[in-house]
Amino acid sequence: MPNEYIPNVTGTDIWYYFICKRELWLMIRKIAPDQEDENVDIGRFLHEYYSKRGKKEVDIGSGKIDRIKKVGNQLVVQEIKKTSRYRESSYFQLLFYLYELKKMGMEAKGELLFVEEKKKEVVALTEKNEEQLKKVIKEIQRYARMPVPPSPKKIKFCTKCAYREYCWAGEE
Ligand code: SF4
């Protein structure tokens, strides 16, 4: 990819940015993770479970919003996660969707739902967090332009990561 390459940042990129920069790079470069990985299966299971219960994803081009509803005159975007363990990723991913909708001329508020903990967090786009988000988007574009991935760093998420064989083969 040429150095001036600027990708369209997606909600998934935002999520991985806060988990692991190497994974972010691998995802952006579409390097396929291990499809047999059980964590990929859990993701699929959650997706199918909510689809069967009538949950409809809404494609806004730069990502798929889990659910969008109207409460009075207010649009509410819901992002559904298993737990709040990766709350920062989930929070910025939701902010990103609110920002994308704002660019389309739609004002919405957000709700983060953590199903296992039965918790809900209301999220609003403000001047301050929009600035933070824009910095994150620029950083993701900077990572995307890197010719090689960042080195692997052992973090808790590695044990759940579909790339763990790729990063740590022979070390586990
Ligand atoms: S295994 Fe760890 S270092 Fe490698 S991409 Fe996944 S989270 Fe990142």
Give the SSE map.
Layout: H1 11-17, H2 21-28, H3 38-52, E1 58-59, E2 64-65, E3 67-71, E4 74-81, H4 87-103, E5 108-114, E6 119-123, H5 127-145, H6 164-168
Parallel strand pairs: 4-5
Antiparallel strand pairs: 1-2, 3-4, 5-6
Helix pairs in contact: 1-2, 1-4
This protein binds iron/sulfur cluster.
Provide a quick synopsis of the model.
The protein is 41% helix and 17% strand. The protein is α+β, with helices and mostly antiparallel strands and 172 residues long. It has one domain (11-168): Lambda Exonuclease, Chain A (Alpha-Beta Complex).
Q: What does it look like?
A:
Residues 10-169 form the DUF83 domain. InterPro entries: CRISPR-assoc_prot_Cas4, Dna2/Cas4_DUF83, PDDEXK-like_dom_sf. GO terms for molecular function: exonuclease activity. Its cofactor is Mg(2+); Mn(2+); iron-sulfur cluster. Keywords: Antiviral defense, Exonuclease, Hydrolase, Iron, Iron-sulfur, Manganese, Metal-binding, Nuclease. The protein is 41% helix and 17% strand. The strands form two sheets. Strands 3-4-5-6 form a four-stranded mixed β-sheet, covered by helices on one side. Strands 1-2 form a two-stranded antiparallel sheet. It has one domain: Alpha-Beta Complex (Lambda Exonuclease, Chain A). Helix 1 packs antiparallel against helix 2 (21-28) and helix 1 (11-17) packs antiparallel against helix 4. The radius of gyration is 17 Å and the shape is globular. By secondary structure, the protein is an alpha+beta fold. The protein is built from six helices and six strands. A hairpin with a 2-residue loop joins strand 3 and strand 4 (74-81). It binds iron/sulfur cluster. Iron/sulfur cluster (SF4) is lined by residues 20, 22-23, 152-153, 155, 157-158, 161, 163-164, 167.
